[in-house]
Amino acid sequence: KLKDIIFHLTKRSINLYTEQILKEMGVKVFNEGSTAKGIEAIKKFLSEIGVNTEGFNLYDGSGLSRSNMITTKMMAKMLEKITKQPFYKSFYNSLGVAGDPADLGFFKSWGKGSKIAGNARIKSGLINRVRSHSGYVNDSDGKLIAYSFIANNINGSHRTVDKLHRKILIELANIK
Question: Which of 32, 1, 12 is nearest to 107 (CA)?
Answer without folding.
Answer: 12
